[in-house]
Specification:
Strand content of chain A: 25-35%
Radius of gyration of chain B: 18 Å
CATH topology of chain A: Glutaconate Coenzyme A-transferase
CATH topology of chain B: Glutaconate Coenzyme A-transferase
CATH class of chain A: Alpha Beta
Order of helices and strands of chain B: HEHEHEHEHEEEEEHEE
Number of strands of chain B: 11
Shape of chain A: globular
Largest interface: A-B, 39 and 52 residues
Number of domains of chain B: 1
Number of helices of chain B: 6
CATH superfamily of chain A: Glutaconate Coenzyme A-transferase
Distance between the termini of chain B: 47 Å
Strand content of chain B: 25-35%
Helix content of chain B: 10-25%
CATH superfamily of chain B: Glutaconate Coenzyme A-transferase
Strand order of the largest sheet of chain A: 4-3-2-1-5-8-10-11-12-13
Oligomer: heterodimer
CATH class of chain B: Alpha Beta
Distance between the termini of chain A: 22 Å
CATH architecture of chain B: 3-Layer(aba) Sandwich
């Protein structure tokens, strides 16, 4: 059994984003998706700090301190790009104008609750940024994460034990083992890696998973 | 003649008093009015409540204001950064109060203050720790949280160009919180790279109309925020 690499996960997410989509990629693992969007599709990337039509990192020496992404890294603006202030940027999220967002997560529950902003540890400095707005604003919320923690616990859970970011917001989960849809009836497997049976996947996940329907 | 231009950053912030609430523009260092913050540090006002998206980066601007122990409370969405050491230290020692606000709620609460809105229902934060104790309401089957405006005594913002009426245009993603903060403070002070003649800004391009701006001060381009590693005491 060979797990998906981070790049394979990003490629798998990229495949599911259609031409014409407006997309926000979260900080961390989701940023990788930008490198794997099919080049024959026109896809517009949004960044919360006020840019639609975000392009790749600039050439060394071409960085502009006034042109950055949500992670505060230098980016470029593609032809057709637009700048706007923060209230407009979050209206795009909260108002349901973004087609997709891709977020990292600590945990996703079988109802689609998302926990990705705070570990809840007492000495941890809390920081939320745009996570809560993104999670409930985009038409479809994709989560991209390792299936298990480093100690082998499933990150897909019956109930989130970390503080939640938003309730019932996740549409689809991409992990290094499987792609899983969140449906009104519960979780349903779309794809899984070769050599991993449905029963094995369900055992590793620890919650009920419906078999792929096709 | 209306002339909102002020000769120096020191003069621009001279009337800031202890205990003031101050909005500071910027997302990280993009759009942060570093020279105005330096003048605020020199002004000496203490016990400030600061509204910003972050809580300072490196050792300049907002980070320096925190280092100098001028801040009593910070209202922001994302304080934790790899280079937010001055905030981290102040927060962990209990010297600084933090009100953590989801970024879109922060923006909308500022916008609401500027637009004269009494409060508003937003879905963001519902069911989370950050909405604990807040009023909620179901509207058309969806859950919302009641959020109140954030007003300030002063807003310090940075724009690219302005004129003596206070009209402003911004630069790229340095625009971020500037246009909404400008509307939500009693006294909005803008630092710009260049003050141009009245009429030189195309009315079609103006992002912040001058009615929202009280003072404007020119800081030529050379004075860019430069990280100063090692400046921390």
């Amino acid at each position: 059994m060979k797990r998906f690499t981070r790049n394979e996960m990003a490629q798998r997410v990229g495949r599911d984003i259609p031409s014409g989509a407006y997309v926000n990629l979260g900080i961390g693992l989701p940023t990788l998706v930008a490198n794997h969007l099919p080049t024959n599709r026109e896809i517009v990337l949004h960044t919360e700090n006020g840019l639609l039509g975000m392009g790749p990192a600039p050439e060394p020496g071409q960085e502009d301190i006034d042109l950055i992404n949500a992670g505060k890294q230098p980016v470029t603006a593609l032809p057709g790009a637009s700048f706007f202030h923060h209230a407009d940027s979050f209206a795009m999220m909260r108002g349901g104008h973004l087609d997709f967002c891709v977020l990292g997560a600590f945990q996703v529950s079988s109802r689609g609750d998302l926990a990705n902003w705070h570990t809840g540890a007492k000495d941890a400095i809390p920081a939320v940024g745009g996570a809560m707005d993104l999670a409930l604003g985009a038409k479809q919320v994709f989560v991209m994460m390792e299936h298990q923690t480093k100690s082998g616990e499933s990150k897909i859970v019956a109930e989130c034990t970390y503080p939640v970011t938003a309730l019932r917001c996740v549409s689809r989960i991409y992990t290094d083992l499987a792609v899983i849809d969140v449906t009104p009836q519960g979780l349903a497997v779309v794809d899984s890696i070769e050599g991993l049976s449905h029963d094995e996947l369900e055992k590793l996940t620890g919650v009920k998973l419906a078999r792929r329907s096709h | 003649m209306i002339d909102k231009s002020v000769a120096s950053v020191e003069a621009a912030v001279a009337d800031v008093r202890d205990g003031a609430t101050i909005m500071i523009g910027g997302f990280g260092t993009a759009g942060m009015p570093v020279e105005l913050i330096d003048a605020l540090i020199a002004n000496g006002a203490r016990e400030l409540t600061i509204v910003n998206n972050n809580a300072g980066n490196g050792d300049t601007g907002l980070a320096a204001l925190i280092r100098e122990k001028r801040v009593r409370k910070i209202v922001c969405s994302f304080p934790r950064q790899t280079d937010s050491w001055h905030f981290d230290r102040a927060w962990q020692s209990g010297a600084l109060e933090l009100e953590l606000v989801p970024q879109g709620n922060l923006a909308e609460r500022i916008r609401a203050a500027g637009a004269g809105i009494g409060a508003f229902y937003t879905p963001t934060g519902f069911g989370t720790q950050l909405a604990e104790g807040k009023e909620t309401r179901v509207i058309d089957g969806r859950d919302y949280v009641l959020e109140f405006p954030i007003r300030a005594d002063f807003a310090l913002i940075k724009a690219l160009r302005g004129d003596r009426w206070g009209n402003l245009v911004y630069r790229k993603t340095a625009r971020n919180f500037g246009p909404i903060m400008a509307t939500a403070a009693d006294v909005t002070i803008a630092q710009v790279r260049e003050i141009v003649n009245l009429g030189d800004l195309d009315p079609e391009d103006i992002v912040t109309p001058g009615i929202f701006v009280k003072r404007i001060v020119e800081i030529p381009a050379a004075a860019k925020p430069v990280p100063q590693p090692g400046a921390a005491a």
